[in-house]
Design goal:
Layout lengths: L13 H24 L15 H6 L1 H19 L7 H25 L4 H18 L3 H9 L7 H18 L9 H7 L1 H9 L18 H9 L4 H27 L1 H12 L2 H6 L6 H20 L3 H17 L3 H16 L1 H14 L9 H14 L1 H11 L19 H10 L10 H5 L7 H5 L1 H7 L20 H13 L4 H18 L9 H14 L7 H23 L3 H5 L4 H8 L3 H9 L6 E5 L19 H9 L3 H10 L2 E7 H6 L7 H14 E6 L3 E6 L11
Parallel strand pairs: 1-2
Antiparallel strand pairs: 2-4, 3-4
Helix pairs in contact: 1-24, 3-4, 3-5, 3-11, 4-5, 4-10, 4-14, 4-15, 7-11, 7-12, 7-27, 9-10, 11-12, 11-14, 12-26, 12-27, 14-15, 14-16, 14-26, 15-16, 15-18, 20-32, 24-26, 25-26, 32-34
Keywords: Membrane, Transmembrane, Transmembrane helix
Length: 707
């Protein structure tokens, strides 16, 4: 195998030394500014759980990932891959998840999302796993015998990774409180389980997005796994990404590149937060990094495992998230460059010397294989979306497709009651555009600094005024060094630098949510590892920076885990923890336990519906259908009729939203209809300090103040 030697350090010179000193002074300034706002704190944590059933509830997640890895390894070996290949280790889990997703979709639509369906699904996964399990010990032994893992620097890095990952894992022992998990990441799989099959969910617009990973969650839930097991996926993917960078780059170029890349990714506080959720951002970052690492493996050794694994990652990205379509394109380009490298670089040489380039032939076998894999893995979700809505990428690019046949029930019921369209419509993208620090050119230029120094994770005091998360100071500190290395490295590595730059600009021009930046940060970590091949005299300050970043990441993880320490230690029970973390939880519990509330529940100004066990009607964070009904109604009875058409018999609203509701529009008719609706049409059946529950007044009940 063509094993490259570590890149030789550039010879020292006075200009080079001056630039290096300036770069490290800049790095030190960044570090000082970062630590001034984020001092190191390590609160006391409950490391020994009082209730070990919480730990047991997490285990099905890692057990399934191990099964998927064995299934992927078995498929690779059946396809003729070499067991000695490092690509076997990288490509096994992506290929196993592709198989699990396809089988979950097929079984869910036929046998059903039931216990029988889950047992069938697991049985089908076990069959290829039987081919991989006997060879797994030999593969792991061969990989771990590499001298890299005996290097003291690697041992120190593994200790830091264990500190961050172990401290973060405490958050998995608590019930879910993250926002989007309650909106759809966990709610959609649970709805599939409740329906017993993969059904359209028009009341949940996010269900129109690709569900390649959520259908796996649904089958696990049908088999008895809880939400804690599902959330271990993100925790595992974050750690696997760091270990993949460490192992793949370390085996190729030595300990420093692997350690720098691994810690440059895993020390982001945003990684620690997402590791305790079911969000798909960490799986997306893992798939992108794994695909690039497999392309590197294929560059040096055109082996079957690398190509199959690269196709699996490129095909699974669009099945997990819509933005994966763009990322899969870059992996396909990486595969094309690797496939044609002898001819493409000869053409560049001819262009440089004779200004005439012979055409680079298109690798049609590879193109057909990539397109076939994407159509097989991701295509079903876009085809299903097209059948349901008329737009394969709904709700985006609606002006290109006719979506008249996919009206949600809130629209059809409004037309039936009022004979028109909503007088008020709230675009949820408005909310997303408020993230960040402005959309002018100056703010865009200062994004690297602002996103590092001024990030807040859903800070109540500065909600949406700053970025919604925090990244490590390392990317900003690395920028001068990466800029220098860009002009010194070869073109294949330079392409990775350009990819990181393009992804950052793309993110900067959109919604400034830090979790959307994770794929970019993962590629930046890879570029940092490529730069570290040249580290010589910079190793001492680099090591210090990595140590500080590791301690800061552990501090952030500890601060977040401290929120669940009373629950883990047994000082707080499940219900009181959720009541403290989620203001609507006591009201939801009343609704769930009330035998008189039989219809749908409408949570007003609240999207988080995971803890509602009864049917619900989802109306976005700003419930514009309800507000439109209050605007259009001539009598409060019309508002009641509209909600009855939707099957709603219960309303929940927070105290803050209820106080603010009359001032939402400066319209006297709206305010009078709203006042009379709550006074005449509904009655209060529950109230606490945070919210109120209403139900419709029985017909024979007199109105307040009547004789």
């Amino acid at each position: 195998m063509d094993r490259p030697a570590p890149a030789a350090p550039v010879p020292s010179s006075v200009p080079s030394l001056a630039i290096t000193i300036l770069c490290w002074l800049w790095s030190l300034a960044v570090m000082v500014a970062y630590l001034r706002q984020h001092p190191l704190t390590f609160p006391e944590l409950a490391w020994w759980p009082a209730d070990w059933t919480r730990v047991m509830a997490c285990l099905p997640g890692p057990a399934f990932l191990a099964l998927a890895t064995m299934a992927g390894l078995g498929l690779l070996l059946l396809l003729g891959a070499r067991l000695s290949s490092a690509a076997c280790l990288l490509g096994s889990l992506p290929l196993g998840l592709v198989l699990a997703s396809l089988l979950a979709l097929g079984v869910g639509l036929t046998v059903g999302v039931t216990r029988t369906g889950a047992a069938t699904w697991i049985g089908l996964l076990v069959l290829p796993a039987l081919a991989g399990i006997p060879s797994a010990p030999a593969l792991v032994a061969r990989m771990t015998r590499h001298p890299l893992w005996r290097h003291p620097l690697v041992g120190a890095a593994l200790l830091l990774l264990a500190m961050i990952g172990g401290t973060t894992a405490l958050g998995l022992l608590a019930p879910v409180t993250s926002y989007d998990d309650q909106v759809y990441h966990l709610t959609i799989p649970r709805r599939y389980v409740q329906a017993g099959t993969i059904v359209p969910l028009p009341e949940l617009p996010p269900s129109h997005r690709p569900q390649g990973l959520h259908v796996v969650y649904a089958m696990l839930m049908a088999g008895g796994a809880g939400e804690q097991a599902i959330r271990t996926f993100s925790w595992a993917f974050g750690l696997i990404t760091a270990l993949s960078l460490l192992g793949a780059l370390g085996r190729r170029w030595g300990a420093w590149p692997g350690v720098v890349a691994a810690l440059a990714f895993y020390t982001h506080p945003q990684v620690a937060w997402l590791s305790t959720t079911a969000y798909v951002d960490l799986p997306i970052a893992w798939l992108l990094v794994t695909g690039l690492l497999l392309a590197i493996e294929a560059w040096f050794d055109a082996q079957r495992a690398a190509w199959v694994g690269l196709m699996a990652t490129a095909a699974f990205l669009p099945a997990v998230k819509l933005s994966g379509v763009v990322l899969s394109f870059f992996l396909a380009m990486a595969g094309w460059v690797v496939w044609t490298r002898p001819r493409i670089f000869r053409s560049f040489s001819e262009l440089r010397h004779s200004h005439q380039a012979s055409g680079v032939p298109v690798p049609w076998p590879g193109v057909v294989a990539f397109l076939g894999a994407m159509l097989l893995v991701a295509g079903p979700w876009y085809f299903i979306n097209w059948l349901r809505t008329g737009n394969p990428i709904y709700p985006h690019l609606g002006f290109l497709f006719s979506t008249a046949g996919c009206e949600p029930p809130t629209v059809s019921a409004f037309q039936a009651e009022f004979g028109g369209v909503f007088p008020y419509y709230y675009d949820p993208d408005i909310l997303l555009h408020r993230f960040g620090m402005g959309r002018d050119v100056w703010a865009l230029l200062w994004l690297p600094w602002n996103v590092t120094i001024h990030g807040h994770i859903h800070d109540q005091a500065t909600s949406l005024m700053h970025f919604d998360g925090q990244i490590s100071f390392l990317p900003l500190a690395f920028l001068p060094h990466l800029f220098r290395d860009f002009f010194r490295c070869a073109w294949p590595a330079r392409g990775v630098y350009l990819l990181a730059s393009f992804l950052f600009v793309l993110w900067g021009a959109g919604s400034h949510q830090i979790r959307f930046l994770l794929p970019t940060l993962a590629v930046v970590a890879l570029t940092a590892g490529l730069w570290a091949r040249r580290l010589a005299k910079e190793r001492l300050p680099m090591g210090f920076s990595l140590l500080v970043a590791g301690l800061v990441a552990t501090s952030f993880a500890a601060e977040r885990s401290a929120r669940v320490a009373p629950l883990v230690g047994g000082q707080q029970d499940h219900a009181s923890f959720l009541s403290q973390a989620l203001p609507f939880y006591p009201a939801y519990q009343f609704i769930n336990q009330s035998p008189t509330l039989q219809g749908k529940v409408l949570p007003l100004f609240e999207e988080r519906v995971y803890y509602l066990e009864k049917p619900f009607q989802w109306m976005e964070l700003v419930p514009y259908p309800f507000l439109s009904a209050c605007l259009a109604a001539n009598h409060p009875k019309q508002v009641s009729n509209y909600l009855h058409r939707l099957g709603i018999d219960t309303l929940y609203i927070s105290k803050f939203a209820f106080r603010s509701l009359p001032d939402f529009f400066d319209h006297p008719g709206y305010r009078e209809t709203l006042r009379r609706f709550f006074a005449e049409e509904v009655e209060q059946v529950y109230e606490d300090a945070k919210g109120t529950v209403f139900r419709w007044r029985p017909p024979d009940q007199p109105l307040p103040g009547s004789p």
